[in-house]
Amino acid sequence: MVPLYILIVSCFKSTGAIYANSLGLPSSWTFDNFVQAWERGRFSLYLLNSLLVTGSAVVLTILAAAMAAYPLSRYRLWWGLPLLGFFLAGIMIPVRLGSVELFNLMKSLSLLDSRPGLVLVYAAIRIPFAVFIFANFMRAVPQDLEHAARIDGAREWRILFQIILPQIRPAVGVVAIFTAIAVWNDFFFPLIFIFDDDLKTVPLGVTTFIGQYRTDWGLLFAALTISMAPFLLLYPFVARRLREGVGAGGGIR
Amino acid sequence: MRLGRSWRVHGAAAMFVAPALLLYALFIVYPLARSLWGSLFQWRGLRQLGFIGLYNFFRLFAEPSLTRVAGALLHNAAWFAGIMLLQNALGLVLAYLLFLRNRGSQLLQSVFFLPAILSPVIVGALWRLLLAPDGPLDAAVRALGLTDAPLTVLGDSGWALWVLIAVDAWNWMGLPVLVFLAGFQAIPSEVFEAARLEGANAARILRSVALPLLLPAVSSLTTLTFINSFNQFDLVYVMEGVQGNPSYSTDTLVTYFYRLAFGAEGSAGITDIGLALALGSGLFLLLSVSTVAILRYFDRKAAAL
Known about the structure:
The complex is a heterodimer of chains A (253) and B (305). Chain A is mostly helical. Helices cover 75% and strands 0% of the residues of chain A. Chain B is 70% helix and 3% strand. Chain B is an all-alpha fold and 305 residues long. At the A-B interface, helix 1, helix 4, helix 5, helix 6 and helix 7 of A face helix 1, helix 4, helix 5, helix 6 and helix 8 of B.
């Protein structure tokens, strides 16, 4: 916790004060660093990009994975189990090692240097884990409601979205949180796929900023705080779900 | 259910599976498969030329590349060992203490886990500032009178790798704590009761009673640690640069891969796709085989109990 304490107090000190008294509380509190960082960096842009990419990737992952997990866990199909295994293998795949050919693929699909390109890649990376979680939870949902709905003539997509998904809300929460954290924090794919400064996400933008203001410590600490603020503020609300999700054996990365 | 037999059901199921399967196959499986296959070809820039068999692999394990591969492999192995000790073993002890204490532990768990929601890039940048000469930790070390010399661990090739490993352990400490704690709580309390009645102390109970029952948790953490240790990139990039400074002492297989694939290796900064794909394929095989081996090892151990 000490590093985070130093981070927070340093934001409110001038660079000179950080050198002179790096551990204590600031003698005079100043918001100057935040104002400066916000004005000189392009954090509103980076935050917006991260928000758009993360939000879209989470929605796409949940939709695609829930749709796939539904027949794989609840229909009796001879190809269900092999296909589920094919998805599960993806949980452990080190995706970065295919990045050269992924780069070529993105180039030929004109998806380089674009936010939708990132969204598709992230959803693809996160789908195996999401399918795994959804399939496990869906298998435990009793069949009665589903049968009743089918007799009433409900279509399959309505059964999935109006009957099954509401019953596995904890799983949707776990998948949403874990996907959001993984996508928001990723650095590798923006690094290789994004060149336009207007499209940079927070982790990439903050490294650019650090490169520019190497010595202005107050500014750098403020920039780091701005970058982690969204999840620090959300943390108290998701901490319980995270504890349960991790305790249950899910990995994050 | 009689549904399973009709073509209509197969069709509906296929339609439901299609989007996820398409995304996964197109953006994950296909590039990886092509990368494995492409490692057997000659490359000029991003253009694939003729089939050359294992020649790329031969070049990978011949000088000048051999020094880089061997160094990086050593660093990744040290990373794995360091994380097992600093993060997982320490995490086991912390989880046990939290379990014994039993009160207010939910808040502490959340506190331990907090750094894990932060991007490794942010964590790395933060620690680079903290550890800089004349930085906050330097000031603290001097105030305690431990040393007068400026703190230069990040620029010291003997220390830098271990500092990075420690930062990674700090980042992810909450993970083993949460996983092990859930494991402890799943053990029936009569088991601990019985051990205590037989006069075993807390350390003894942890080693001889609890640990064997925690094997599934140990197994999955070991696997995860192995994969993550051999995929290290972000921390090194942010704290020491993509060359793994100072003088390649923090270079990892993925930073080397990145330099080969995206052009920062050698004085001219030219890409060498053939080498990159060979390295990627080699690493992929290493990870797959090792992961299966680790899981098998723990399965057999669990079965022997």
